């Protein structure tokens, strides 16, 4: 038994840290270091969707790269072909008009994939970001109080910490 303890200690000292990648929960879809849940049966306003994702220990999806944007678009195309749906993301300009940020961090967008002519404030007060099927899942600004499907994201990387020695 002492040999096993020695091997575990050696593993920690050589590795420096331990990183664990767990599987996504049932119904969630993995992409890189995140898991995504596409919620379409229970349409919610942006604020309700944000709260529901948080209750699931996640957040509305935050797009950090073209690869991630393409992944979400491809999943939406598979799951919702031919619909007119829009899907909430964490993006919004609720605090300052035309200052688009991610709702869970308040970080300004590092990348954007707006449909040409968007954001446009059509009919005023369009302050929340969606993927819009009509625009081939490009980004659209929309009224935050409309009940819509939404996408939750959770980073699936668990870092157990570093061993200093």
Any overview of this molecule?
By secondary structure, the protein is of the alpha+beta class. It has three helices and ten strands. The strands form three sheets. The chain has a four-stranded antiparallel sheet with strand order 2-3-9-4, with helices on both faces. It has a four-stranded antiparallel sheet with strand order 6-5-7-8, with helices on one face. Strands 1-10 form a two-stranded antiparallel ribbon. The longest helix is centred in the first third of the chain and has 14 residues, at 2-15. The model is unreliable at 4-21 and 159-165 (pLDDT under 50).
Descriptive keywords:
23% helix, four-stranded antiparallel sheet, 165 residues, globular, alpha+beta, Mannose-Binding Protein A, Chain A
Concise account of the structure shown:
The protein has 165 residues and is α+β, with helices and mostly antiparallel strands.
Number of domains: 1
Shape: globular
Biggest beta sheet attributes = 4 strands, antiparallel
* Share of helix, binned: 10-25%
Enumerate the spans where pLDDT stays under 50 for 5 or more consecutive residues. 4-21, 159-165
Proportion of residues in extended strands:
25-35%
- Taking the alpha carbons of the first and last residues, their distance comes to 23 Å
| Strand runs, count | 10
Radius of gyration: 19 Å
